[in-house]
Each structure stands twice: as structure tokens, then as C-alpha cells.
Amino acid sequence: MSYIDPGTGSYYVELTLCVTDAGNQPVPGDTTTISLLDGTGSPLGTTHAATDTHGCFSGDVQPIGAGSNVQPASVTISDSSGGSTTLTVLLGAPLVRPPRNPLPTP
């Protein structure tokens, strides 16, 4: 879900993901690359997040700079194994909500 941070006026995406290996076992400490894209597929920002001891990451990913004012339409998540997935981002309700666990993108 995508929300607007009332403190900055910028969009952010609330994201929870888990990484598993070919045997469907959690991969703790896996570094993922998270790319935010607009409705045309143009990049808004990219960041990295590591999975916890259970192979999961939960946080709010927010573009900085010009990309922060554009509603993200999708996120692409990839890891060092070469696996990737693209997810559609929906607008949250209410749209304006403070981030709970921010992870800004460089």
C-alpha cells in the first residue's frame, strides 16, 4: 500500500516480504534490492533491505528527491540469487498516514 507522509508530503510504500530458498526455507540476512516505479515504469528510487532471522523484512520504503512526489505504482524486489518479483502498489486508505518503520531510499 502507498501512503503520503503528513510530515513531508512524500509518498511511501508499506512493505512486508519474506525470502525463501529453493527448498522453501527462510533466508535470513539476505540483501534485497527494492526499486520503486511510477505508472509508466520509470524509476522513482532504489534501496536495499536485509531480511531478519526469519527471512523477512517489514518497513516503509520512501523515495527521496523528485521521486518522492510521485505515487509509486509498482515495486520490483530482487536478491543476490537473481530471483525477482514485481508487485502492484495500491493507494492506502486513509491516504495520509505517518510512516511506522521508515527506510528511505538513497
Strand order of the largest sheet: 8-1-2-5-9
Gross morphology is: globular
Counted by DSSP, the helix tally is 0
**Radius of gyration, rounded?**
14 Å
CATH names the topology as Immunoglobulin-like
Q: What class do helices, strands and sheet pairing give?
A: mainly beta
User: Under the CATH scheme, which architecture would be assigned?
Assistant: Sandwich
CATH level-four homologous superfamily name: Macroglobulin (MG2) domain
Give helix % range.
under 10%
Question: What are the key terms here?
Answer:
4-stranded antiparallel β-sheet; Immunoglobulin-like; 106 residues; mainly beta
What do these coordinates show?
With 106 residues, this protein is mostly beta strands. The protein has a single domain (2-104), classed as Macroglobulin (MG2) domain (Immunoglobulin-like). Helix content is 0%, strand content 50%. The chain is built from no helices and 9 strands. The chain has strands at 2-4, 11-18, 31-37, 43-50, 56-62, 74-79, 84-88, 91-96, 102-104. It has a 5-stranded mixed beta sheet, with no helix packed on it. The radius of gyration is 14 Å and the shape is globular.
